[in-house]
Structure formats: structure tokens, C-alpha cells
Design brief:
single chain, alpha+beta, seven-stranded antiparallel β-sheet, five-stranded antiparallel β-sheet, 14 strands, about 35% helix
Length: about 300
């Protein structure tokens, strides 16, 4: 279960949370099947597909938010709705009013929804109590906030706060690309995004490029700023850090995953837990350096 993208929140009161409490709360707010007249349902699911609602490896806790969404294309609704309107107008001999048309649309939705396909989904998250963070497997701030929102709903209060840094992340990324010392054993990758700070300014994307080249640096000297920057950490992982502090293309490198190939896992669950243990340990090590480099501080509640 390696995360591909990560949105981070700080948890200033995480010390109040214990494994048993978390398990009880999440199981009490488990995913329920989407109702026949509902478009979606959200609730917590066991990360391994069955069993406990929280898995633990070392100091990290793994949880998962499940979802069911009805797939009802707007074109289908529109076609059925217009057909109903045409039928009633033909029968009555005059155009329908706004209220009648609106009621027909709702009737159409109520009729179609029970027959719509249901698409399942899940979003994983890891809580590191010692670091005081929750990491969510998504690049979407909206999706991450949705998971945090379900935790708030389940607990009544869950003070997960967006990352705040002592300095502008964009300024830090720009200085890194200009040659300011990176954290020890961190190196530039081969991808960046440069933006002109002016309104509707130019956007430059560099892929598979030497980021220390004169061509790239010329953009910086012309006033562009770094909004995304690929970095390698300790020869263990690579990611693209954005000025929104979202970690994209998060990937453990061969040096980190070599041990998994030699592990004797007897089941899918054992393999998933081995991956979780490895991933969460590497994420914890990475976050300690990341937080120091960017001056991450916990927002006051």
C-alpha cells in the first residue's frame, strides 16, 4: 500500500488518541451501502478489506475511508426528462410550467437512481502520532479534507490542521533550485514547474531535465518562481513537492524496497502489512527532514 500522492495535516492533539478508541469510533461509522435514492455514501472500511478498522505498524496507524457513488450520466437524465416533458405536453396540449418541469426532473432522478451503477472507492490515510501528522493518499485537497471531515464527524472534534510553514514554500523551492543547500542527502530530481508571479503569467514545465542547467536557471533569473520541484531523499524515495506542500509522485526507490522481495509473506494481508510497515517508516523519516527544511509549524487551534 504505497501512497502515490500525499496531503499532510498536523494533529496538535493527537496524544489524546489511542488505538482502541480509534478502532471503536471508526467501526461505529463504517461505510453503509448507498441508498436507492442517494447519490453517494461515505464511511470507514477495514484497510485490509476485512477485520480491524485500524492497522498498526511500529508507531503508525493505517485507516481507510470507503465510498460508494451512483454513476448517473447527466445526458441520460436529460434524455429521459425531456421525453417525459414531451409526453405530458402532448397530452395536455400546452407547455409545462417551470414548477411542473422541475418536479418531472426530480421524478426522473428518483426513477433512474435505483438502476444506476454503483462505483466503489477508498482513500487510505496514515496517522503518525509521534510526528503529530496524518498523511492522506491523494493529491486533491478537497478529497483530503473530505476524509478529515469524516473523522471530525465521527469524533465530534478532530483538530487536523493544514500545514503552515515559517517561510513561503514557493520561496524555499525557488532557493533550492537556485543552489541553496538542500537537506543532507537530498538531491534535485529531473522535474520542475516554474511560474511567473504576475497575473496570468507564463508557466514552464521541465521534465527529464537537468535542473541545474543554464536554461532552467535563466527562467529563475528572469523572475519566475518554482511551484513544483522534484527531489530525491536519501536514495530511498523521490517525490515532487508543490508550493501547496502536496507531495506528488511519491515513490519508494529500489534501495528502499529491496527487502520486500526477500520477505516470506504467506498471504496478501501479510504482504500489505509488510508494505505498510516499510512505507510508514520511510514516510516518518522523510517528514522529519521535510518539516525541518520547510519550517513546518502547527497552527494554533
Amino acid at each position: 500500500m504505497f501512497f502515490r500522492n500525499i496531503v499532510l495535516f498536523t494533529l496538535p492533539e493527537i496524544q489524546r488518541l489511542d488505538l482502541e478508541t480509534l478502532e471503536n469510533v471508526l467501526s461505529a461509522h463504517a461505510l453503509k451501502p448507498v441508498g436507492p435514492l442517494a447519490m453517494q455514501s461515505r464511511g470507514f472500511v477495514p484497510p485490509l478489506g476485512s477485520g480491524a478498522y485500524v492497522q498498526r505498524a511500529g508507531r503508525s496507524l493505517w485507516l481507510s475511508l470507503g465510498g460508494e457513488d451512483r454513476i448517473l450520466p447527466s445526458a441520460v437524465v436529460q434524455r429521459e426528462w425531456q421525453a417525459k416533458i414531451a409526453k405530458q405536453e402532448a397530452a395536455k396540449g400546452h407547455p409545462l410550467g417551470k414548477r411542473a418541469r422541475s418536479q418531472l426532473k426530480q421524478d426522473t432522478l428518483d426513477e433512474l437512481m435505483p438502476r444506476a451503477f454503483v462505483k466503489p472507492s477508498h482513500t487510505n490515510a496514515v496517522i503518525d502520532p509521534e510526528a503529530g501528522i496524518i498523511a492522506i493518499d491523494t493529491s486533491s485537497l478537497k478529497a483530503a479534507e473530505a476524509l478529515v471531515g469524516k473523522l471530525r464527524e465521527a469524533f465530534g472534534s478532530f483538530p487536523a490542521l493544514p500545514l503552515q510553514t515559517a517561510q513561503s514554500p514557493r520561496a524555499m523551492l525557488t532557493r533550492f533550485l537556485l543552489g541553496e543547500a538542500l537537506p543532507e542527502n537530498w538531491f534535485l530530481g529531473e522535474e520542475c514547474e516554474l511560474t511567473d508571479p504576475a497575473e496570468k503569467g507564463a508557466l514552464v514545465k521541465c521534465l527529464r531535465s537537468d535542473l541545474a542547467s543554464e536554461e532552467v536557471l535563466a527562467h529563475l533569473h528572469a523572475g519566475k518562481q518554482v511551484t513544483r520541484l522534484a527531489l530525491l531523499a536519501d536514495a530511498q524515495l523521490a517525490c515532487v513537492i508543490g508550493d501547496d506542500l502536496v507531495l506528488r509522485k511519491f515513490k519508494l526507490l529500489e534501495g528502499a524496497v529491496d527487502g520486500l522481495e526477500n520477505s516470506n509473506t504467506e498471504s496478501v494481508e501479510d504482504e500489505l502489512m509488510a508494505r505498510f510497515a516499510l512505507f510508514s517508516a520511510e514516510l516518518s523519516r522523510f517528514y522529519a527532514v521535510f518539516a525541518k527544511a520547510f519550517g513546518v509549524v502547527a497552527k494554533a487551534a
